[in-house]
Amino acid sequence: MTAPAGSLLAAERLRKAYGPTLALDGAEFSIHPGEVVAVMGPSGSGKSTLLHCLAGIVTPDSGTITYDGRELSAMGDARRSALRRSEFGFVFQFGQLVPELTCVENVALPLRLNGTPRKEAERAALGWMERLEVDDLAKQRPGEVSGGQGQRVAVARALVTGPRVVFADEPTGALDSLNGERVMELLTEAARSTNAAVVLVTHEARVAAYSDREIVVRDGKSRDMERAL
Amino acid sequence: MSIGHTLLGLLESGPRHGYDLKRAFDEKFGHDRPLHYGQVYSTMSRLLKNGLVVVDGIEAGGGPERKRYAITDAGITDVAQWLATPEKPEPYLQSTLYTKVVLALLTHRDAADILDTQRSEHLRSMRILTDRKRKGDLADQLICDHALFHLEADLRWLELTAARLDKLREAVAAQ
Amino acid sequence: MNALQWTRDLAMGVRFALTGGREGWTRALLTAVGVGLGVALLLLTTAIPNALAVRHEREAARTDITFVDSAPLSRADDTLLVANVGTDFRDESVRGRELEPEGPRAPLPPGVAEFPAKGEMVVSPALKELLESDSGKLLRERLPDRIAGTIAEEGLIGSSELAFYRGADGLAAHLGSGRVTRIDHFGEADEREPLDPVLLLLVVVMLVVLLMPVAVFIATAVRFGGERRDRRLAALRLVGSDSRMTRRIAAGEAMAGAVLGLLFGAGFFLIGRQLAGHAEVWHVSVFPSYLDPSPALALLVAVTVPAAAVLVTLFALRGVVIEPLGVVRTARPARRRLWWRLLLPLGGLAMLYPMFGQGNDDGEFNQYLVVGGVVLLLVGVTALLPWLVERVVTRLGTGGVSWQLAVRRLQVSSGTSARTVNGIAVAVAGAIALQMLLAGVDGDYTKDTAYDVTRAQMQVSLPEDVPVTSAAAKFGRTKGVRGVDAYSEGYLGDRREDPERSTMLTVGDCAALREIATLPSCRDGDAFAVIGAEYDTDTEKLAAPGRTLYLDPSYEGGPKSKEIPWTVPEGVKEARPRIGPTGTEQMGFLVTPKALAATAGPALTGQIYLRLDESVPDVQDLVRNTAAAVDPLASPMTWSAVERNERFTAIRTALFAGAACVLALIGASLLVSQLEQLRERRKLLSSLVAFGTRRRTLGLSVLWQTAIPIGLGLLLASAVGVTLGAVLLRMTDTTVRVDWSGVLSMTGIGAAVVLVVTLLSLPPLLRLMRPDGLRTE
């Protein structure tokens, strides 16, 4: 099987083992620009590993990952890091904001890593915080804001570089349903408005309902529900 | 819930008498509502008429309870089709899903597949509801939420069942 | 609060510490090793005075040649003749004695079972080993006697002391030369020479300076693993312990670590003590048995360390609210106040002030005031540093990302980082002060010897009966000797007994004489009188040709001397004085060999000055070997341009080693807390890497995070250290001069510690940054 035409990010026959445990065993994936794809499956099924591979955080043992016509799995660490800095955005479940930096500094961080001057980076950060309705928290530190607000700050940070793919790993995992849905709404809206693709790892159906389609990972194998039907 | 498909599925493991069929059904699916014998009789005659089962033999003494039924190839295909078609997401369909899963296990089909298909169908509904909720007013949101929560409950059950398939397979095999 | 409750809670904490699974064990072990190292250092330090005292006693017990002219003993059956035949080998001294018992009851030196016969010797184990080794071959040539046995421990002052006793005869002839004595017992009444008050001040300050950081270190060590512990404490609160109970349980945990640490410390100490038996530091070695800390001090350590652990924990948890759902550090702690922090060093200065200008001459320093003042000044560092760090980091601007990460982290928890560097700051401050004091009083304790080492590098004094010319020839043939100036010297008086005027007679060839005086001309057979030499009042008056003078005149009360008459030759010429190689002007008569009657010979002793080719390996030892071959009592001496008070040198080196040890220890604790901090942030680090943060950026931020507080700490330490140094110098009445090299070297060591710690924490940092940290399962 080759990557479907027009896909932005696609993976084929991914295998990845952590020691004796096989986390991925021939998983497939593809996503188009502007698409939101939910990766579902029971815990331990390998969905996070799939996300890590797709984002170039870990290299699969075998299989290929193509991003925008380039083979991600063949790139060196430095190039993959640079890609993550500039073209990918990340939202995790928790523990991702640097506790000592203020919220606006946290949001500005990816821009600054790309060399944007501080003032400019923070101005852009503030813009995104406004869109996610957390601009009043700019000077607070992550420890001083609620979980839902923190996640919105994290979403702002994921989007601040104008990424083409946003990777979200259980972004609402630590939130109640109202806050979780608000975060999802803002994340998917913002992503759609910039035509960014979103890879959304979740085990919650109500979160997955914000996606356009879902794939199921079970025992390291993926199943694309749309194409299966 | 389709009793016809269920009885067909039970026949897949081998020909049975109508009375055996009722007992097997009650044991596996009819915990709180045992099947009335008349239902078995009428269902089997409908299946017979549609060519999904054939009468395998009649024991002396006559009477419908003495007929032995066997499934036809068309019957097997019909069961497979039924299992593969996701149920329309609506409240209280666990019993149908449960029946499908158990039947799949009994007939050595892929039960996880059934659950995945069903989840996908549920998610399709949930997406529509979520979309409506996004665009609607508060009343819409509340109405959609009600449906969403019910669907989510189904989905949780699906996940839980998926996680316990191995155990269920053992339990079904033991009976 | 009743004692029972306290005990119960503490005991529960101890149980937690010991049964907390692998993690609990690791933490307890880490604390124990940290505290153990501190305790071992404490015990060693407390044992040092005892070790020095034992050394001193041993030395006193074997004293033979006292140079004190008490009534000379006459030969008896309980007398012994002892000759000092000590020598040097490379840069080590070898204590050597020749023994000649004069009767059956002659006293045996301590540690020697039987007198060695002539041609035999008993040696210390270290010397035995040296003589039997390849590197000791040169020395073996000098000490060829058969080794008949070894000297036992009670006759030695250290495990690696080089010493021998050798059998001899005919020593009586040399009685009175200063190198041979007749004794009837070994040992002298213990008249301990009191330590010079300035040296005492140094030792006291040094102990304080070295022990303070150890205390700070122990205080840090009991807090290892603090953050995980906090979570455990929160869980305790959840199941219903109240906040005071929780604190006490935490204190109990710390105490368990500390007690375990005491055991480790005792172990480390015993190991260290054994190792000390093999080690030799600055030519000082000790036997393990010397290193016995006084029981009182050991008990004090055993009680204070766990008690301190409890107190430190309770104190540290002061600003922490332990809630059932987590630990809340009071969000914005009260701004640190300056005034009481300043009181400490000012108080210290006030305690030291009354002793300003007391110096060497005005008796002893009040030790309590000195200790109190120094302690307060140094504690002042630990009090001022958190304030300083807080003040500075809130003002630091934002630079690059790594800088921003580090600065922000410091702003949030400036206290933690200040605490970790406190130890380094105290150690450096103390060490700088001591360096300054040492450098300042250096002049007092380092004498310029007058020796002109460009003109001669060794001198050999010969006993009276050794003919100078043949000896000089032997030295001239020794490998590595470039030039020999040989002289025979004797004293002249105007009468046989109790002369009123006296001067010297020096015999040498023209070349040799030219070295010590300016001669108008010289041929063998000439004689000269040096007129106008320093301190010389008599030569001019005695230099009348034909006048009879007496060589080696007798003095009242002393034994009868040789009293050999010598006539001032006709035609004695006048010579001008010249500063000789010894740095003094030779006075008296200078005579070429032909102008001297043979009869004068016995009254003259030989002095030989040697110019050496120092590129010849072991040239000094070759010369010493020749000297030993010429006569066992010939005494070779190597000249050096300066001579240091040895005790002073030892203090200075001890300081360096001590400071280095303490800094290494603190570096270790820094590393541990650094690693712990990194582990805590594993998840965060992984997510930072996920969105593309360069490893370099994170590495640099770790560096900044240590470097900023340490930089500030070193700055403060330099300021306090220089102040304390200046105060100490004023106290000893020495000109205040900042010893910049000392400041630089100490701060340099401090900075090196930071660098090493950062480097060592990089591999685990890189490992933690791997994406595995993102896996939640």
UniProtKB/TrEMBL annotation, chain A:
GO CC annotation? plasma membrane
Q: What residue ranges carry the coiled-coil annotation?
A: none
Q: Which regions span the lipid bilayer?
A: none
* Record-level Gene Ontology MF annotations: ATP binding; ATP hydrolysis activity; transmembrane transporter activity
Question: Record's CDD domains?
Answer: ABC_MJ0796_LolCDE_FtsE
InterPro entries hit by this protein = AAA+_ATPase, ABC_transporter-like_ATP-bd, ABC_transpr_LolD-like, MacB-like_ATP-bd, P-loop_NTPase
- Protein name, UniProt field: ABC transporter ATP-binding protein
Q: Which organism is it from?
A: Streptomyces griseicoloratus
From TrEMBL, chain B:
Q: Where in the numbering of this chain does the Transcription regulator PadR N-terminal domain appear?
A: 7-77
Extract the Gene3D superfamilies matched here: Winged helix-like DNA-binding domain superfamily/Winged helix DNA-binding domain
Quote the InterPro entries the UniProt record gives: Tscrpt_reg_PadR_N (IPR005149), WH-like_DNA-bd_sf (IPR036388), WH_DNA-bd_sf (IPR036390)
Supply the Pfam families for this chain.
PadR
Query: Per its UniProt entry, which superkingdom is the organism in?
Result: Bacteria
Protein's name in the database: PadR family transcriptional regulator
Source organism: Streptomyces griseicoloratus
From TrEMBL, chain C:
The answer to whether the entry has keyword Transmembrane helix is yes
InterPro entries in the cross-refs: ABC3_permease_C, Membrane_comp_ABC_pdt
KW Membrane (keyword) present: yes
Q: Where is the ABC3 transporter permease C-terminal domain?
A: 205-318, 659-770
Membrane topology recorded in Swiss-Prot or TrEMBL:
Multi-pass membrane protein
Cellular component (GO) terms are:
plasma membrane
Coiled coil (UniProt feature): none
| Chief location | membrane
Q: Where are the transmembrane segments?
A: 28-48, 198-222, 254-276, 296-317, 338-356, 368-389, 654-675, 707-729, 741-762
Where found? Cell membrane
Keyword list (alphabetical) reads:
Cell membrane, Membrane, Transmembrane, Transmembrane helix
PANTHER family, per this entry? BLL1001 PROTEIN (PTHR30287:SF2), MEMBRANE COMPONENT OF PREDICTED ABC SUPERFAMILY METABOLITE UPTAKE TRANSPORTER (PTHR30287)
Which protein, by its recorded name, is this?
Answer: ABC transporter permease
Q: Which taxonomic lineage is given here?
A: Bacteria, Bacillati, Actinomycetota, Actinomycetes, Kitasatosporales
